[in-house]
Each structure stands twice: as structure tokens, then as C-alpha cells.
Amino acid sequence: MVKVKFYGGTEEVGNVRITLQYQGKTLCLDYGIKQNAEDEATAFPIVDYVVVSHGHLDHVGNLGYASRLNKETRFVGTATTKRLSKYQLEDILKIEKRKQLENPQLKPNPRSFTKEDIENVNQNWIPIDYNDSLKLGEFEVKLLNAGHIPGSSIIETRCGDKRVVYTGDINLEGNLHREFPDLEKLAKNPDVLIIESTYGDRIRDGINKEEALFLNYVREALDKGKNIFIPAFAIERIQRVGSLLDKLQPEFPEYSFYIVSPSYMKIKDLAYRGVNFPNLKEQVTLPDGYKGSKSVVVSTSGFCNGGFSKKVLKEVIDNKNYTLIIPSGFLPNDSPIKTALETGYVEFSNRGVKSKKVVRADIKQVSLSAHSDMNGLIKIVETVCPDKKTDVYLVHGEPASQSHLKQMLEARGYNVKIPKKYDTIEY
Asked: Which of 72, 253, 299, 336 is 20 to 30 A (C-alpha) from 156?
């Protein structure tokens, strides 16, 4: 008997923590974080193993805390995911320290961890290559390429005669390294399929058309003499945006094109060796006077909740000579960009003092996503579960997205469930 319990990633994007209990041991699928949110302590189980799908923060952001809870925990993932996870955890520490210095009255994060915890994660990490199997006590784990970002994995876990497949974040269109999901190498018809549902209610035109739309927006703004600001994530999104802008820059030699992100500068050496943009200026700080010169600035974080993008947004959102291009189809509710699109203003806070700015810049949105859309997710389910007897669980998606995908799959004869936090199932 294997017991599956959902501690996070339920009816929300990110924050994934799903445990499998078998023969007295507990294995967790991801141990993520949801920024700007607090979970109760019971949402963070003490586990023997964490198998990590990929190095995005919402899947690895609490690995340090998992190690703090149990220093004997073993971590499993690809070598690339190991490198990215270490960087992400170190970055969280820097951010936490900065917040505390800026606001000494701020309550410490109850799920904080230390450099020693990060080092313990690193020392206790077992790297595994795609298509290889690994025994973890009574569990047997196999990783297959998920096509999301470098190192991303589909996780297949065997517990005796039961099989649980977790897609992690998955992209049938592949990543910049031209890596695609290895669905055909999965044993078909598992007992449980746990699949992400970020874009469960949307159909995209395909990455080539989305990239063409992105370039169209850039050209349109530059032809009008406007400056451009593009918030993007350091892993995969900046690289995709950068590859497009690098080819475009020679058409607009009067403009300076910048990537401004310490995160990107570090991560590109961890996962994107050989991906270079000779026509772009890569910097760890914002260029002097960029607002007064002809410029295209790409910066982190992707949702403008922090990093340089939050600073730039505050400075340019009310400037009619700017165009903001959002290279993400999904925006969380706490993103200032989503507020700007829906209300026409953005509220900022500085040391507790709040202020509003009216949106005067143009805002364009295009989906350069590393996730499969609804049709892709349906294809994944149909490929992995052709006999339609598998129980399909939807995670990593907002309620509307999950509800729509559930209806579409049920119409095709699948047994689909949307788990809530702490729901437990046994097989």
C-alpha cells in the first residue's frame, strides 16, 4: 500500500510538495515555495527523500528547510538541477537578509534555513541521469526529460507493484536546448498520474507564432521611438527573449539592448553554456541614464514582485514613452503587472508608505511559456494513460485552469481529480 499526500501545489501555481509513504519511509516530489505567502508548519513534512523535478524556485525553494527538519534527508535530481537549486537557495538567503536590513521590524521567516542547511542539501544530493533508475530504500525512481528547462524531469516512482508518475513542469514544444519530453520511454498506464495544469484552460498558437508576435511588439514600439522594458525569469525565459532580441538588435543600431540580472549572469553558466548574445549588453546593475536614452531593458524578476524589474516598473509604468512587454501568459494574482492590466494603476510600498501610479505605458502580453498548453496536457495524458484506467490528479494550476482541464479530460473518459491541501489517497 502506498499513501499519496498533497502538502502543496493544490489549486495554486508552484509551492509543490507531494509525499509518497511506503514501507515506513517518505519520499517527497519537489519541496517548493510560494513567494509572498506563508503556509502553516504542517504543510512541510519531515521526509527521507526529496526527488526534485527541476530548478525553478517554486519547486526547490524550501529544500533548505527540508534539510533543516531532517539532516538525513537525501535529495535526488539531475546534475543541472542540483547546480540550479544550490544557486536558488543561496539567492533566497540573500533576499531574506536584505529584507531584514531594510525593515528590522520584519518578523523572521519561520521556514528560514542557513548556509549550513544549503551545504547539507548539496552534500546529500544524489545526481541521476535521464533514463537511469535509482533505488531509494523500497522506492525505485526514474527520471525522464520533461522539456521544460535544462535538467527538468518527469519522475516515475515504483512502490512495490504500484507506479506513480509526476510530470513536474512539462513542455511538449521543448526548451532552448531542443530537448523534448521522453513520453514514449515511460511505462504506460501508471496507477497514478500527477500532472501540472498551469495552462489547462488555454490554447496557444505555438511557440513560433508567439515568438513572431513578441518581435512584432518590439518592432512596433521601436519604430515609434519608444523605450522597452521586459520583465523575465532568469531560467529559460531570459534566454528565449535574449535569443530573439539578439537577432533583432542590428535592425535598430541606435538602441542599446540590455539584460540586467545578477541571477541570469550566474545561471547561464550553470545551465546554458554555449548560449551567447553578442548584440546584447549583459550587466549586473542597471545602466546609468537608461530612461533618457534609447534602450530595451530585460530584467528579473519575471512578475515584477522583486529584483530590478520591480524598480524599473515603478520608474516607467506612468511614462507614455515606454512599452512593457510581458513574455508570460500566466500572471499570479499578487503580480503588480496583473494589477496594472486589470485596474490601470499600480500600488507601490516603500517602508510601509503606499503610493499609486497610473498606467500610461503601453502593456503587451505574449506567452513565451515553457509549459504545455491545454492541448499539450491532454496529449500527455492520452500518451501516458491510453487505457484510461489511471487516476489523474491535477496540480500546479489555479482553480479555473484545473476545472477546465478536468472537464476536457473527463469528456475523453478519464477519471480526474483536483486535490485539496492535505488530501490523502491510498493504492
From this structure: 72
Tell me the Cα Rg of the chain: 21
Reading the block at residue 284, the C-alpha cell is: 549586473
CB-based contact 9:17 (threshold 8 Å): yes
Cell, residue 144? 525522464
Enter the C-alpha cell of residue 389: 484506467
Whether residues 191 and 53 fall in one domain: yes
**Based on the domain organization, do 394 and 288 belong to the same domain?**
no
Provide the residue range defining the domain that includes 121.
3-202+370-426
> How much is the pTM?
0.93
129 DSSP 8-state letter: -
Record the cell numbers describing residue 253, joined without a space.
543600431
| Domain shared by 136 and 181, yes or no | yes
What pLDDT is stored for residue 36 in this prediction?
66
What is the CATH number for 251? 3.40.50.10890
pLDDT in the model for residue 325: 98
* Residues listed for the chain: 427
pLDDT of 351 higher than 70: no
Regarding whether 65 and 42 lie in a shared domain, the answer is yes
* 311/234 same-domain check: yes
Q: What's the confidence (pLDDT) of residue 221?
A: 98
Closest CA to 183 of 150, 154, 151, 152: 154
Instruction: Give the SS3 label for residue 50.
Output: strand
Supply 88's cell numbers.
Answer: 536558488
Is residue 225 helix, strand or coil? coil
Q: Do 44 and 166 fall within a single domain? A: yes
pLDDT greater than 90 at residue 416: yes
Residue 144: which CATH number? 3.60.15.10
CA distances from 256 to 250, 287, 307 (A): 10, 10, 21
Percent of the chain residues topping a pLDDT of 70: 99
Q: How many Å apart are CA 162 and CA 307, to the nearest integer?
A: 44
Report the pLDDT value the prediction gives residue 333, as an integer from 0 to 100: 86
Q: How many CB atoms lie within 10 A of CB 287?
A: 14
Tell me the CA distances in angstroms from 362 to 220, 322, 323, 332, 387, one per residue in order.
Answer: 11, 6, 5, 20, 49
Query: Domains in the chain: how many in total?
Result: 2
Cell 498551469 identifies what position? Answer: 198
Let me know: does 169 contact 151? Beta carbons within 8 Å: no
Same domain, 361 and 401: no
Q: What residues does 77 pair with on adjacent strands?
A: 127
Q: Residue type at 381?
A: V
Within 317-404, strands assigned E span 322-326, 345-350, 353-358, 362-365, 391-395
Q: Can you tell me the distance from the alpha carbon of 80 to that of 152, in angstroms, rounded to the nearest whole number? A: 8
Note the pLDDT of residue 177. 86
